[in-house]
Specification:
alpha/beta, Rossmann fold, 9 strands, globular
């Protein structure tokens, strides 16, 4: 075989490899559910906590026109109401549910501080440890990480997943091999997003604020928000 033929064969193999790489790449966008009363005032929201009026209006404005190949969603009411703004078929996914706040679920920080000041002080010092009788961040990361690994093993394309601030932090810890405590320094505002791609390994592509244009880019830069719970 002459050098020209060898060169053509090598180029063909390279093109095939690049085509397969692009075809098999998974791009997952994690979207934070819209704002609720608890996310604005501070508290341990339960699964039935709805979007507040401003959060609902913002979700409709931000999510309209956003499209994914598949849309997975936490079964929490706030996440499902956020997903409803997209008018797309939704696949509820229990692995995307929020961290279980245990005995403090459905209570404000003020209420917990009044009844359990020492417990609240301990939680503020180490939120990753979780609330009493609740779920710590390590378990949350294992839960969402198992789902993410399953998704990466069987899916290509551009799925979206609507979840919650602590779960997005837990997902980043798993996908990027970050220390859990380090992710607590990342502000996750309502309706912000995190986009990652997978091809043999996860890579962070973007952090931003919805809406996303048709090319997959954020129309506005990410900004920290006081709405983001600790």
């Amino acid at each position: 075989m002459n050098r020209q033929a060898i060169g053509v064969n090598c180029l063909s193999e390279l093109c095939l490899t690049l085509t397969l790489t692009l075809t098999l790449t998974l791009t997952l966008t994690l979207v934070c559910a819209g704002a609720t009363r608890f996310s604005r005032s501070g508290g341990f929201a339960g699964p039935e906590e709805p979007l507040d009026d401003a959060g609902r209006r913002a979700a409709v404005a931000a999510m309209a026109g956003v499209r994914f190949d598949r849309l997975f969603c936490s079964p929490a009411r706030s996440a499902m109401e956020t997903a409803a703004a997209m008018a797309l078929p939704v696949e509820p996914e229990i692995a995307l549910r929020d961290v279980d706040h245990g005995a403090w679920s459905g209570r404000t920080i003020m209420e917990v501080g009044a009844s359990h000041p020492d417990g609240l002080a301990a939680w503020l010092a180490d939120p990753a440890a979780g609330a009493p009788d609740g779920e710590d961040m390590a378990n949350a990361a294992a839960r969402i990480g198992s789902w993410i690994d399953s998704l990466a093993g069987q899916t290509s394309g551009r799925p979206g997943a609507i979840t919650h601030p602590m779960m997005i932090r837990a997902a980043l810890a798993h996908m990027l091999d970050m220390p859990l405590r380090a992710t607590l320094a990342i502000d996750i505002a309502p309706l912000s997003f995190c986009r990652l791609s997978f091809n043999r390994a996860w890579r962070l592509q973007a952090l931003g604020a919805l809406p996303i244009d048709s090319g997959g880019k954020a129309k506005a830069a990410y900004h920290a928000s006081a709405d983001d719970p600790p």
